[in-house]
Specification:
32% of the residues lie in helices and 23% in strands. Belongs to the Gfo/Idh/MocA family.
Length: 353
């Protein structure tokens, strides 16, 4: 059987997201061709041309719209305030669209895009790549086999030490423009909690700005309560995200009636992709054994080798969906999807005030 033609793709934005999380995976996938990269920054433009000499590098989003007839998919990897207008324009131009997180700045904007994509019969996906982190996949496997028993507390953290600002747009962006850690790392943590334990409500929120000049927030703690799936006790998710942790806490500390899972250290894929490693390379997505998490039943502590991470799975599933062969890799409007996550973030801001 002849393989379908690759999906012709443009990546809009060549910061960390476009450079490390999208372009390498698209270029590597047999289901896609990386045709266009958009960046108005001369240094990034030169870097893109050096890394992908056969790809057309253009300065503006309007250049993508002008090439819409020669493209199939557009990936929006620009600052959050641009996600809604750019995704809307791309959908109206007849293209399937991937939006990096946060999906949009407001749930109302997200709802508009979902309705538009449905009306036009286009694919709209959100890149929630942390669903393919090694620790997340490992925890899913432990939960599936019942190793933890009945989970009552999900502690998850994305804690870093970053007393300065790494990106000019972040230093200039308040909440209304999609700035702040709750929109950034918080989007990942809320999504993980929803995927693992189902729909939730916010019962506590602490949202603070610690760094001098921070226009939004950089230190956040949320408590979500998940409705019991089978009539049991609710699960509480304690989600911590901060840029003020010189000694970061665990990524996961999950507690259940039969034991607990404890994991420190972030998934290696961001570092590997930035260094030029690709999913087909030996060792991709694999962390050293000494970085493994641990399981304890209260008596014995044993290491749990992490499942390999697999961000490339998003694009494999996306290609199948665009071709009508399977579900979307991320169901945007579902009760545990990115739109639900945005509503929880809005709820957290209302509670905190």
């Amino acid at each position: 059987m002849q393989r379908p033609a690759p999906l012709r793709t443009a990546v809009v934005g060549y910061g960390l997201a476009g450079r490390a999380f999208h372009s390498p995976l698209i270029e590597h996938s047999p289901d896609f061709s990386l045709d266009v990269i958009v960046t108005g920054d001369p240094g990034r433009s030169a870097a893109a041309r050096e890394t992908y000499p056969d790809v057309t590098v253009v300065p503006g989003f309007e250049d993508v719209l002008a090439r819409a007839a020669d493209l199939d998919v557009v990936v929006i990897a620009t600052p959050p305030e641009l996600h809604h207008p750019q995704a809307k324009a791309a959908l109206e131009a007849g293209l399937d669209v991937v939006v990096d997180k946060p999906f949009t700045v407001t749930s109302a904007q997200g709802e508009e895009l979902v309705a538009l994509a449905e009306r036009l019969g286009r694919t709209l996906a959100v890149y929630q790549n942390r669903r393919w982190d090694n620790a997340f996949l490992t925890l899913k496997a432990l939960l599936a086999e019942g190793a933890l028993g009945e989970v009552h507390r999900f502690n998850a953290g994305m804690e870093r030490w970053s007393p300065g600002f790494s990106k000019a747009w972040k230093q200039a962006s308040g909440v209304e423009r999609g700035g702040g850690l709750l929109f950034d790392l918080g989007t990942h943590l809320v999504d993980c909690a929803l995927q693992l334990f189902g729909p939730a409500r916010v019962v506590h929120a602490e949202i603070a700005a610690r760094r001098p000049g921070e226009p939004a927030d950089d230190d956040v703690f949320l408590v979500l309560e998940h409705a019991p799936a089978g009539g049991g006790a609710p699960v509480l998710s304690h989600l911590s995200m901060t840029l003020s942790a010189a000694q970061p806490g665990p990524v996961f500390d999950v507690r259940g009636s039969a034991g607990s899972y404890l994991k420190y250290g972030f998934d290696p894929q961001e570092r590997q992709l930035s260094a030029g490693l690709r999913p087909s390379d030996p060792g991709y997505g694999v962390e050293p054994e000494e970085a493994s998490g641990t399981f304890s039943d209260g008596t014995v502590v044993r290491p749990v080798t992490s499942e390999p991470g697999g961000y490339q799975e998003f694009y494999r599933l996306l290609a199948r969906h665009v071709r009508g062969e399977g579900p979307a890799p991320v169901e945007v409007a579902g009760e545990t999807g990115p739109l639900a996550g945005l509503r929880l973030i809005e709820e957290a801001r209302r509670i905190e005030r």
